[in-house]
Amino acid sequence: MAGQPQRPQRVALLDSGCGLLPTAGWLRHLRPDLALDLYLDPEGMPWGSKASSWIVDRVVGTGRRAVERGADAIVVPCNTASVTAVVPLREALEPDRPVVATVPAVKPAGATGLPFAVWATERTTGSAYQADLVARFAAPGQAESVACPGLATAVEHADAAAVREAVAYAAARTPARCRSVVLGCTHYPLVVEEILAALPPGTGLHDSSRAVAGQALRRLGLPEDPSAEPAEVRVHLGGEEGPLPPAALAYPIGRALARGGRIARAELPTTDETLLGTRPDTAEQPALRGV
After folding, report:
1. Which residues of the chain carry a pLDDT beneath 70?
2. Handedness of CA 239, 12, 26, 269 (dihedral sign)
3. Structural domains for the chain
4. Left (φ > 0), alpha (ψ -120 to 50) or beta: where does 158 sit?
5. Which of 14, 168, 180, 257 has its CA 20 to 30 A from that of 97?
6. 178 counts as catalytic
7. Can you give the pLDDT at residue 272?
8. What's the pLDDT at 4?
């Protein structure tokens, strides 16, 4: 009917926990008039310890439910879910609803020509998926893989002491020659200050959360507009609407999302990739593009 306000476009973000916060924060900063649905899975987390078939069922089922609840696009800000379930998720929802996956920022780190490390969970560090990314986008001997046992769990529970311990463990195993670190888990950007404090001065960080948010906007055909009027943010916990978990509120992004207004740049983590801005190929590298 003429004169009725147009419904805001809605983006659903799927993750087991707090790993979706950085990408959600960037979406909120770049296009506050996008309605956001944050799907967390407190009963099923962590997804990284589950069988692949379980992850596929969980992610595809949640994606279908998000579409039923009005989602115009699906974003998967989780490396494990992206590599495990994005193909069947796209088969289920595209082309009617775009699906945007997450890939660690190995390509831009490799493009620097300098040695770098990839910090990730133990499962991702030993995966063929990460090995393929390094083989594609890094020169021989340029990249070092560093497992970070316990770091994602510590971030998820906002356990400051455990975060410091896990970061110190990973930093001690990062070769001194590495000039930057790729954050290969979507939880890690939430603790960039702790990571930088443990690394040699001048070490850069690469994170793909801004690039993933930018890719979602491109798939929706939307330009960036940080001044737009904010739309709603809904939180879904195991299928039921509710508040963000207390641990999520320990982080500036979590508190900003719970507040419901615009998100200032200062409330988002700063890494090399966020300073450089987003490039069309950063979020969708060939390992996951076009499938």
Report:
1. 1-5, 272-291
2. positive
3. 10-102+209-264 (3.40.50.1860), 106-206 (3.40.50.1860)
4. left
5. 257
6. no
7. 67
8. 52
Dist. CA 214–CA 29, nearest whole Å: 11
Nearest partner of 69 among 230, 234, 213, judged by Cα: 234
> Cα–Cα distance between 185 and 17 in angstroms, integer?
12
Q: So what's the pLDDT on residue 61?
A: 95
Cite the DSSP H helix spans in 138-208: 151-156, 160-172, 192-198
Residue positions counted in the chain = 291
Which residue in 205, 201, 211 sits closest to 192, CA to CA?
Answer: 205
Instruction: Tell me if residue 185 is catalytic.
Output: yes
**Residue 11 three-state SS:** strand
Tell me the CA distances in angstroms from 119 to 106, 148, 184, 259, one per residue in order: 11, 6, 5, 31
Q: Which is the catalytic residue, given 18, 148, 178, 185?
A: 185
Catalytic residue among 18, 78, 148, 178: 78
Q: What is the pTM of this model?
A: 0.89
- Which residue's structure tokens are 């986008």? 137
* Sequence-distant (≥ 6) Cβ neighbours of residue 100 within 8 angstroms: 73, 74, 75, 76, 212, 215, 216, 219, 283, 284
Going by their DSSP bridges, the two strands 99-100 and 35-40 should be labelled as: unpaired
Place of tokens 């439910």: 65
CA distances from 134 to 6, 125, 140, 179, 276 (A): 44, 11, 9, 16, 21
Kindly report, residue by residue over 227-279, the tens digit of the pLDDT: 999 999 999 997 789 999 999 999 999 999 999 999 988 888 877 665 543 33
